Amino acid sequence: MRYKFFRPLAIPGVALLTASFAGILTIAVLGADAAAAQGASSARFWSELPDPGHIAKAQTMPDFVELAAKLSPAVVNISTDEPDGPAEGIEPPEGMEPPRGRERLPHSRNPFEEFGGPQHSKALGSGFIITKDGYILTNEHVVENPGKVTVTTQDGRNYVAKIVGHDDKSDVALLKIEAKHDLAVAPLGHSDDLKVGEWVMAIGNPFGFDHSVTVGIVSAKGRFIPDNFDDFIQTDASINPGNSGGPLIDLRGQVIGVNSAIYTQTGSSMGIGFAIPVNMVKEELSQLKNSGKVVRGWLGVLIQRMTPELAESLGVQDSRGALVAEVLKDGPAKVAGVKQGDVIVAFDNQPINDSRELPLVVGRTPLGHKGVLKVVRNKQTIELPVTITESKEAQVIEAANKPKSELGAPSQFGLRVKDLSPDLARELGLDQQAGVVISSVSPGSRADEAGLRARDVILEVNRETVKNVDSYQSALKTGAKSKIVLLLVKRGDNTLYVALKPEV
User: Fold this and answer.
1) Is residue 168 annotated as part of the catalytic site, yes or no?
2) Which of 44, 193, 238, 499 falls between 20 and 30 A from 367, CA-CA?
3) Is 81 a catalytic residue?
4) pLDDT tens track for 471-487
């Protein structure tokens, strides 16, 4: 290997020592007069810490040996017999697709198992004991469809577990085993006190290798992942399939998170793991134990994220807040007088900086609580009293799956449309109030392949103007025999033609 050497430069007051090894130059400051130092200081436009006058001692690594020995007995292996075939991890809801590379941790299976194994496969996950009499926390997706749940403790004992309660939105499940002796317990800590940069330790069963210990730091807090209710803790402690439901532990030996998801392009750890904050879990434990489910408050609105462009058009100072895209019938927001196009900027004096914070704040609010919404409407800030009621999200989703005309009429291209209302036209910045707006596009459909999006407005079908859903459907029938259906679409400030091939 050839090395490139550099000729030393003569610099007043500086001696250069040329190292013959690998062409490395070591520069030693021998001294400079006070005037030169003062001149350099006055010319400096950046900040530096004062010279401590000595070399600081290197910080030593924490000792995780005692911590691992103390907490490992409380961590368990969870296996589920699945008579309908092996688990394939969490599938997104119909019509939804997670961002590339981001997934909940799938169950781990034996990588050494030969083909032709038993038909009743075992999906493996992790959990940890939170009471001496056998209550165990884990992820909901670890035990979502089991034939039988088996818990194995560190000493090798097996127990059949009962699912006491589970919640899909937060991905938390509470199990119970019956033991004849007191069990080791992992104490729950306080995730709100966690700071970015703190050391943390994860214990779990990655790929079925039980009680594996990994360490790292808290990389970030308040991470939002699409289609998830939690604001996650991000860590670079190595987390892999099989770590699902295991604890994330601080240096005090307290559980501050439940490992749940990873960002990956390989199926394994890439240094970006996510844990559910334990403070959120603690809020749900009593409901899971007593009723088997979690009941949350709701507002009854569909919201979307603010953008700088939306903020400017709506008269909001910045892009903070949650934009109300739709107000659901008979919901608390409707009763309170919330309107489509309002921007919710605070709830009970708690600022809503990101739209994704609103469901978390409202979901944690006790039912019947009388709160105050601060909203921006027509560039004016107003306050609206609101009473939080039980969530009806399940009923709304069920209703949304029914082909009702107000939810959007279906077509053969894999899209749903609805009439363009005056309010929606104003929200979209449109002058005209004729046309139909696309409410949803099915992934993989002809409409999806052509690049159509929700909230696009269809103005023409085969050069024929459409004023509402009825005229749109009529135009489609008229052009049913055409080889190509030509749509004129309005998207923001742009108008474009889109050609669709009818499905055979």
Assistant:
1) no
2) 193
3) no
4) 888 888 776 666 678 88
